[in-house]
Structures are given as structure tokens and as C-alpha cells.
């Protein structure tokens, strides 16, 4: 098939060039001009159309017309998505590349190239990462994907560790990096003395949050043990609450010369509002989705819509109240998944999973792609000292934080983290597009805003490329405990579930309650959220649980 | 389960009221104000939040904040979609209603109620049907749904009749209704003497096009024979080419006092450009989609995306060049369906079909819903004479047209249409939202624009309600030939396909070629558009063809 493989490459390159040529003449987000007509232009001199009797004075019915501004927005969105999809196909043609270089790096590289092309023709890229588009349209699918396919049992078994790292770890990183950078700022040689403590803390908050998009794209290929995976993964989803509060707080405080104790107290109160509020909305909408799907037996074709609408509503309502939207949507997905998959038809279930994966995948692709594009097209302000020390401190404080926090949490864990696991935890803390978008939303009154943006990009590129590429060989080299990726057989699943119910029953008898009891007894909610015709038959059990292999979606 | 059924109703009503209360304070399409911050408001006096030490002079860190404009657009879109989905669920709870009253009527009724509520609180509804939103976002999913699930064999067996009715029938209706209305305008008593011939023809073009959305929603419930269904269905998809050309032409000509012969010639030329151009783009993008899916073996999760992207691109490119976008997207779907379903994974195939059905369903629901809403909220200009004669002429000319055209086409048909079929053809010509949207895009220089809008709404409401509700009992009363809806068994399918191949072979030998020959020989394209690993095994044959039951999607 060599002949076809050549044709294939030529076709792909040709299409690539064609679609690259389209965005010329566009200018980002322009609301469509209401033209007032469907398919009719105001009569124009048909300069390029055929005319039977060319007559310079009289206008004839135009045969060929063109109206680009009308379709500009959906057209450009479609082209960008197609371009990103072609890039994904292209990577997987040479499978050996993606074994060693994470897809995120490849996408950023393609983005850099496209950004260079756009910059050279003085074209502005669409404002995707630098506006609400990122937080309202691009981030929710990825987080929904993470939350919906989160392996539930390992998550709840490690929930304490996850929250410990998410909350305390992020605080540690933010304050540590912020203070160290402030100390560096005092050194005259670097020329950044105008950055005060609050601004440093604000910047440190932005870059200390581990990013779910980046982590996912790397850790999916590296088969570490579940404990490690779930802690890093859970941490990057749940640190959003802390990031939101700290960002608010330092932003607010950056404009005030004096910080009062009451503000610290209010900050702590706000943390609980943000965290618990996010979870609360998530659970609320999750149960609403479960309840609604009780009644969708006659409208099977729109069943998947409810899942997407409710989870998106949870996200938006959380954004409305400025609480943690990531936690809201993750909690919503976790809550509704079980009940919804019992209620909807098999086809809807397949569709829901596939669409969530599809949207998450394409969002992630676009985010890394545009990260590359805006790296070139943004105005940079480079400062060697500040940026190099940012990289250093981010690395050092992450490592220290993991060491210290693991020492404290290990006695409480069933499976303690050894040093190799801790290396994986620390080294796997990648930064990504959330940091970049947050940097871009810094208020304009911060003097060194451009420097912060440049430093954020630097740390993202560094972690994604250097850490992202090297983590796989390093993990294999130091021989971190790996996962056993075999799908559970039916027997294993049945027996595991049998044991869980037995343990729950025994706990009931003894009066000693652990998480098995609570899991079993949340089933009391089932009549409210499950349609009468669906019940836990052996068939539906197999359908739901056997096919939910923890790590694979194929 | 009486208790739960009560709870269910209370819950549904409560949710209905909650979601109805949300759009207050909104104002249609406002581009999001770039607030410049993610989750932080400019510090406001937290009037409604808790404060530890209330101090009127100093601002403290706000604990509760709200930022609605930022999320307004996605939030309102989500709520409207949810509301429409709840309405759909509600209808199917009382299954007996939907047996006799088509869903379209119920949705318009709900829309009328919501429109009345919005009007009473002086709220503007979102500009959904009255702007590009309809043609760029709401219509494509429905037409893709129609095209993708179009029964191919019956369609190609009747393609001549379909095009005959679509082209000549629409011409007949437009010119007939236009002339008659112009004659009516001459009567002084009606007070519409200012409407000239071109404006009447323009208006007649708008209302003579049979609407796929309305027809589908009615004919799906009424099980008429395939011939009848496919002709009405095909007609309403393919008359778009004629509508586009006539609309352009009369719009252009409405501003010119003199119509030259060259313009008529250009009009005919334009018709071919529009029709063949639409088909050409459709076929091009269809093959592009088929070609692309050859290479998606490693990126299964984004396979469905290509189908949607390519068909949407076909639609947009056709809109760009002001040619028939409906024909483009239908042809694209028809072309790519076979090849794509061979190339993609089973899961992707299920997802594609379900998502297309889902998007089409929700679009259709929203369209009828908003049709009801804008009926109340639009400014009307009523004229008894003009509107009543519009209804009369639309009905009469449709009936006459069907009679005359059937007489001419029947000798060429294998299964001629009897009088009962002709009744079904004529009576099933419903108008819908496309007419409304076209009416709204009439240029402002037409003096009686409001009257035209009102008359269009009147004819839509009349056909959808009166004809839509009565067609089922009438069809049963006069005993139109019904369809045999049993799914073909495997044996039937295998033998049918065997016969087709045999006939194609015999034709090859005899030298007499009919459509069997061409169908068989388009398989020469297969190596280019089919991945090497997929070939026509018995398994894949059953997978594809057996599950494509002509009428059902369950």
C-alpha cells in the first residue's frame, strides 16, 4: 500500500495547506453582522460572474455571489477543529512518536508553527485561551471527561490523601513560591523590585496549580500504579477550590495596603463556601439528572442531552457564584453516573460515553494547539532572573512539598507512598492551560502583567516538554510500581462485589461502620432516582460494571 | 406508584416554573462583556454576605459574589434547551395526546403560552428564528438528520418524481399563488393595492415551499406507503434550490422596474448553479469524509466529529456561495453514509446515529417552540382579505398542482399514484419555520413587510394545526395504502441483495443498463474511500444493512 500511503500524505498535506489558508482575512471574535437576507446580497456588480450581455450601466441578476462575514464564526471554528483533528490523526500515523513524546508536546509544536505563520502575515489568532471562551467552552468538556471516567473505588479509597495534597499542597506551593520570588525581587540585579509581595503571591497561585489537562495527557500513557495516578489526578481536579480562593484573595488584597486579620478569616470562610458550595451544586444537579432520566423512556433520542445539560448547568451556576466550577462539574458527574447509566438505554449510554470522550479529546487538542499559537503571537516581556528562579522554585517547592506532606500522610494510608512514588508525585506536577488563562485574566493595574504571562508560558512549556517527555523513561528507569492493567474478568468483578456487600453486612452486625456501609446504604436513594422498570438485575450489573474497565476506553 | 406520579408532576411543574423564571432580566443576544477576571468581581460592598465586623467604611474580602452577564449566553441557551426537552418528556407522559395531536402542535402551543408570559412582562425573546441563528445553527441538524436517515433505495427509485415535484411543483405554486394574490390586490376593498407583482411573487415563493421540519414531524406518525412518504419528504428537501433561486430573483427584481429577458435566462442559469453546485459540494465533502475515516483507526474517540464537521462544512460553504445549502448537506450525508459506516468502529457508528437524531430532535423542538413564542411577541399587521385569500390560494394551487403534475408523471412511474395518494401528497404539504425565517429576512424596503410576516405565520399555524391534526384521521378514513413496517429478516435482506447483484450482472451481459448497474459499479470507488482492513464480510454486511431498518430508530 505504499502508493496509497504516498497519496495519503499528499492529501493530508494538501488539506492542511488548504485549511491553513482559510483563516486569512479573519479577525477573531466578531459578532455576525445582521445582513438581513438569507441568500441574497445587495445587488453587486458581478465582476467575476458570467454575463450574457456585459453592460456597464445596468446590473443583471448575479449568478455567482459570495458572503463570507455571515458564516465567518461557525466556519472558522469548524476549520480550527478539523485542523486539530487532522493533527491528531497525523501523530498516530507514526505510532512510535507518540510512545516517547506526549501528544501535548506535539500539539504545542504544531501550534508554534501555525502561530509563527500567523504572526508572519500579521494575523491575529482567535481569542480562545485569552478570554471567557476558555473557561466557558473549552474547559468544561475536559473536566467532565475526567470526572465521568474517574475510577470511583480508588478515588474514594484515597480521598483523604487527594484532599490533603490538593488543599495543603497548593497552599504550600503558592506561599512558598510567592515568598521566595519576593525575596529574589529584592535583589537589585534582576530589576524586578517593583513587584510587591501580594503580586508575587498572586503569580505564585497561578503557577502552583497542577493542571488536569496536562497531567492526563501524560499519565494516560505512563502506566503507573493506581494510587499514584489517582492522587495526582484527584489533586489537580480538586485544587481548583484553593486556587480560586487564593486568586480572589490576593487579587483583592493586591489593591489594599493593609491586610487585616478579618480578611484572613473571611478567606478561610470563602474557602469553605467555594469548596463545599461547588460540591453541593454538583450533587444537586447530579441528582436532578438522575431524577429526570427516570422519565425519558419515551424520548430515548434526547437522553444524552440531559447529562450534558445538567453537568454544564452545574458548571455555569458555580461560575455564576464564583465558586469552584471544576469541583461542581466533577461532583455532578460522579453523582449522576451510576443512576443515569441504569436509567438510560444501552445506546444512549454508549453515546454519552463516546461523546464525552470526543468532546474532552477535541477540547484538549485545541487547548494545547492554541497554547502553541499564542506563545508566538503574545507580546512577551522576558527577564532571565525572574523566570529562571520561577522555574527553580516551582520545581523545588513541589518536591519539598511532596516529601513533607507524604511524611505526614503516610501513617494514615493503607499503602504508604515509597520514595519512588513520591518522585512520581512530584515530577508529575505539570502546569498547563489553566495557569495560562488565569495569567491572562490578571487585572491591567498590575504593572508587570506581561512578565507574569511570559513566565507562566515558560513554566508551562518547561513542565510539559521537559517533564512530560522525560517522565516515562525516568519512571521506567527507577521502576515505580506499575499498574496491572488487565480487565477484571466477570468472576473477579462478581466476587469483589460479593465481598463488599458481605463486609457491609458484617459491619452492620458488629456496629463498626466504614465506607462499605455508606456505599451500600446510599442505595436507599435508588427508588427516587431510578425508574421503576430498571432494577439491579444480573444483566444490568454486568452491563454497567463489567464494561467500566478502570483505565481503558476503546 | 400513584405517590411517585404525584411527586413527579409536582417536580416537573416546579422545575418548569424555576426555569421559566430564569430568563428574566436577560436581553437576547448580547456579546459577553470581557470582564477581565475569572472569578473575581471588582470589590463590591458585600451587602448580602456575612461579615465578621460590619464596617461601613472599609471593604472586606467578599464571601458571596455573583456575576451573571459573564455566563449569560451559554446559561440561557442551556435553559431554553432544557425547557424544550422537559416539554418533550411531558408530552410523552400522556401518550394518548401524541397519537392524535402531532408534537409540533403541542410545542407551538407551549411556545404560545411562554410567548404570552414573556410579552406580559415586556421581555424580548432570544432572536432565534429571526436571525442567522436559525439558518446557521438550527436548520443544519434537522436537515442532516433527514439526509442521513433517508431510505436510499426508495429515494433513488423515485428520484425523478421527487425532482419533478420539487422543481416544477414549487414553480407552479409560487407563480400561481403570486399571480392570484396580485389579482386580489387589485380589488380596492382589501386595501392592499400598494403591493406590486414582484412583491406578491416574492411572498408567494416564501410560502409555497413545503417545509421538511413540519412534514417530518407529522408523517413519521402517519404510516403512509413509502412511495408517498419519499416523494413528499424528498420534495421538501430538494425544493430548496428552487426557493433560493426564486427568492433571489424576485428580491433582485423587486427593485427594478423592468425585467429583461436576459434576467430570466440568468435566473435559469442560476438555478443550475444553485442546484448542481449544492449537490457538487455535498458529494465533494461526502467523499472527503469517507476518505478521512480511512485513517481514524487510532483515534476512534473523535471519529464521529469528522462526520459532523464535514457535513457542516458542506452546508457552510454552500451558504458562502449562496447556493442550496440544504441540498449540499443532504447530498453529503447520502454520499458519505455508506463508506463511513464501514470505516468507523461500531461504537462510533452508534454514537453518530444517536447524536444526529438527538441534535435533529432538539433543533426541531426548539424551532416549533420558538415559532409559538415569536407568534405572540412579533408585531402583527392583519388584513382579513389578504390573509384569507393567501390560505385559500395556497391550498387550491397545491391541490391543482398535485393533480396536474401527477397526471403528467404517472405514465413514467412503476407504481402510479392513485387519487388517494394524490390527496396525501397535496394535503401533506405543510409549511413551517423556513418560510417564517425567510419572511423575516425580507428587506426593509418592502412596504408591507409586517403583513407578509403575519400572513406567513397564519399559513404556518393553519397548515400545522388544521392539516397536521386532521391528516391522520383523513388518511385512515379514505384508506390510503399503508406501509408494511415489519423489519426485513436476514433472509429477506440477503435475498434482495442477491437479486440486485444478479440483475446487475444480467444487465452487464445484455448491455441494457439501469440503476442496478450504476449502484453496483460505484463500488469501484471503494478502495479509495474504504480502509484496507474493512471489507464486505458477511458480518459487516449484516451490521450495516440489517440494522438500517427503513423507518425505525429505536
From TrEMBL, chains A, B:
<dbReference type="GO" id="GO:0051453">
    <property type="term" value="P:regulation of intracellular pH"/>
</dbReference>
<feature type="transmembrane region" description="Helical">
    <location>
        <begin position="422"/>
        <end position="440"/>
    </location>
</feature>
<keyword id="KW-0472">Membrane</keyword>
<feature type="transmembrane region" description="Helical">
    <location>
        <begin position="162"/>
        <end position="184"/>
    </location>
</feature>
<dbReference type="InterPro" id="IPR004709">
    <property type="entry name" value="NaH_exchanger"/>
</dbReference>
<dbReference type="GO" id="GO:0015386">
    <property type="term" value="F:potassium:proton antiporter activity"/>
</dbReference>
<keyword id="KW-0050">Antiport</keyword>
<feature type="signal peptide">
    <location>
        <begin position="1"/>
        <end position="28"/>
    </location>
</feature>
<feature type="transmembrane region" description="Helical">
    <location>
        <begin position="355"/>
        <end position="378"/>
    </location>
</feature>
<feature type="transmembrane region" description="Helical">
    <location>
        <begin position="133"/>
        <end position="150"/>
    </location>
</feature>
<feature type="transmembrane region" description="Helical">
    <location>
        <begin position="71"/>
        <end position="91"/>
    </location>
</feature>
<comment type="similarity">
    <text>Belongs to the monovalent cation:proton antiporter 1 (CPA1) transporter (TC 2.A.36) family.</text>
</comment>
<dbReference type="Pfam" id="PF00999">
    <property type="entry name" value="Na_H_Exchanger"/>
</dbReference>
<keyword id="KW-0739">Sodium transport</keyword>
<feature type="transmembrane region" description="Helical">
    <location>
        <begin position="452"/>
        <end position="475"/>
    </location>
</feature>
<keyword id="KW-0915">Sodium</keyword>
<feature type="transmembrane region" description="Helical">
    <location>
        <begin position="228"/>
        <end position="250"/>
    </location>
</feature>
<dbReference type="InterPro" id="IPR006153">
    <property type="entry name" value="Cation/H_exchanger_TM"/>
</dbReference>
<feature type="transmembrane region" description="Helical">
    <location>
        <begin position="98"/>
        <end position="121"/>
    </location>
</feature>
<keyword id="KW-0732">Signal</keyword>
<feature type="transmembrane region" description="Helical">
    <location>
        <begin position="312"/>
        <end position="334"/>
    </location>
</feature>
<protein>
    <recommendedName>
        <fullName>Sodium/hydrogen exchanger</fullName>
    </recommendedName>
</protein>
<dbReference type="InterPro" id="IPR018422">
    <property type="entry name" value="Cation/H_exchanger_CPA1"/>
</dbReference>
<keyword id="KW-0812">Transmembrane</keyword>
<feature type="transmembrane region" description="Helical">
    <location>
        <begin position="271"/>
        <end position="292"/>
    </location>
</feature>
<feature type="transmembrane region" description="Helical">
    <location>
        <begin position="384"/>
        <end position="410"/>
    </location>
</feature>
<keyword id="KW-1133">Transmembrane helix</keyword>
<dbReference type="GO" id="GO:0098719">
    <property type="term" value="P:sodium ion import across plasma membrane"/>
</dbReference>
<keyword id="KW-0406">Ion transport</keyword>
<keyword id="KW-0813">Transport</keyword>
<dbReference type="GO" id="GO:0005886">
    <property type="term" value="C:plasma membrane"/>
</dbReference>
<dbReference type="GO" id="GO:0015385">
    <property type="term" value="F:sodium:proton antiporter activity"/>
</dbReference>
<feature type="domain" description="Cation/H+ exchanger transmembrane">
    <location>
        <begin position="82"/>
        <end position="475"/>
    </location>
</feature>
Amino acid at each position: 500500500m505504499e502508493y496509497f500511503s504516498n497519496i495519503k500524505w499528499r492529501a493530508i498535506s494538501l488539506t492542511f495547506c488548504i485549511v491553513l489558508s482559510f483563516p486569512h482575512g479573519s479577525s477573531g471574535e466578531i459578532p455576525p453582522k445582521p445582513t438581513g437576507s438569507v441568500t441574497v446580497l445587495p445587488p453587486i456588480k458581478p465582476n467575476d460572474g458570467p454575463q450574457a450581455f456585459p453592460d456597464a450601466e445596468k446590473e443583471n441578476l448575479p449568478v455567482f455571489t459570495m458572503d463570507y462575514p455571515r458564516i465567518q464564526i461557525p466556519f472558522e471554528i469548524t476549520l480550527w477543529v478539523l485542523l486539530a483533528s487532522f493533527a491528531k490523526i497525523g501523530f498516530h500515523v507514526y505510532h512510535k512518536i507518540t510512545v516517547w513524546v506526549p501528544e501535548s508536546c506535539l500539539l504545542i509544536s504544531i501550534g508554534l508553527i501555525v502561530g509563527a505563520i500567523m504572526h508572519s502575515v500579521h494575523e491575529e489568532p482567535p481569542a480562545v485561551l485569552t478570554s471567557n471562551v476558555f473557561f466557558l467552552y473549552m474547559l468544561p468538556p475536559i473536566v467532565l471527561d475526567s470526572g465521568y471516567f474517574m475510577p470511583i473505588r480508588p478515588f474514594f479509597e484515597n480521598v483523604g490523601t487527594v484532599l490533603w495534597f490538593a488543599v495543603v499542597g497548593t497552599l504550600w506551593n503558592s506561599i512558598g513560591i510567592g515568598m521566595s520570588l519576593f525575596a529574589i525581587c529584592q535583589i537589585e540585579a534582576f530589576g524586578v523590585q517593583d513587584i510587591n509581595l501580594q503580586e508575587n503571591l498572586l503569580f505564585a497561585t497561578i503557577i502552583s496549580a497542577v493542571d488536569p489537562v496536562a497531567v492526563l495527557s501524560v499519565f494516560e500513557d505512563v502506566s503507573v500504579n493506581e494510587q499514584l495516578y489517582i492522587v495526582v489526578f484527584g489533586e489537580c481536579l480538586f485544587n481548583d477550590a484553593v486556587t480560586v480562593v487564593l486568586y480572589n484573595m490576593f487579587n483583592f488584597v493586591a489593591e489594599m495596603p493593609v491586610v487585616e486579620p478579618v480578611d484572613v478569616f473571611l478567606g478561610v470562610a470563602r474557602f469553605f463556601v467555594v469548596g463545599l458550595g461547588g460540591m453541593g451544586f454538583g450533587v444537586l444537579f447530579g441528582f436532578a439528572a438522575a431524577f429526570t432520566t427516570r422519565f425519558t423512556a419515551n424520548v430515548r433520542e434526547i437522553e444524552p442531552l440531559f447529562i450534558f445539560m445538567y453537568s454544564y448547568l452545574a458548571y455555569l451556576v458555580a461560575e455564576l457564584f464564583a465558586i469552584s466550577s471544576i469541583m461542581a462539574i466533577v461532583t455532578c458527574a460522579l453523582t449522576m453516573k451510576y443512576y443515569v447509566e441504569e436509567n438510560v438505554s444501552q445506546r444512549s449510554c454508549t453515546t454519552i460515553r463516546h461523546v464525552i470522550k470526543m468532546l474532552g479529546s477535541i477540547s484538549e487538542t485545541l487547548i494545547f494547539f492554541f497554547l502553541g499559537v499564542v506563545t508566538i503571537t503574545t507580546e512577551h516581556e522576558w527577564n532571565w532572573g525572574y523566570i529562571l528562579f520561577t522555574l527553580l522554585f516551582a520545581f523545588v517547592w513541589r518536591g519539598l512539598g511532596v516529601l513533607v506532606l507524604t511524611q505526614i500522610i503516610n501513617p494514615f494510608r493503607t499503602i504508604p507512598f515509597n520514595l519512588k512514588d513520591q518522585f512520581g508525585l512530584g515530577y508529575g506536577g505539570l502546569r498547563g492551560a489553566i495557569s495560562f488563562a488565569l495569567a491572562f485574566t490578571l487585572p491591567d493595574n498590575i504593572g508587570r502583567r506581561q512578565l507574569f504571562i511570559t513566565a507562566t508560558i515558560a513554566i508551562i512549556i518547561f513542565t510539559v516538554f521537559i517533564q512530560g517527555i522525560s517522565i516515562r523513561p525516568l519512571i521506567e528507569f527507577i521502576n515505580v510500581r506499575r499498574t496491572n492493567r488487565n480487565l477484571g474478568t466477570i468472576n473477579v468483578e462478581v466476587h469483589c462485589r460479593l465481598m463488599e456487600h458481605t463486609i457491609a453486612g458484617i459491619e452492620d452486625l458488629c456496629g463498626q461502620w466504614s465506607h462499605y456501609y455508606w456505599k451500600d446504604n446510599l442505595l436507599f436513594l435508588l427508588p427516587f432516582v431510578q425508574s421503576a422498570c430498571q432494577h439491579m438485575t444480573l444483566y444490568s450489573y454486568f452491563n454497567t460494571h463489567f464494561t467500566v474497565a478502570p483505565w481503558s476506553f476503546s
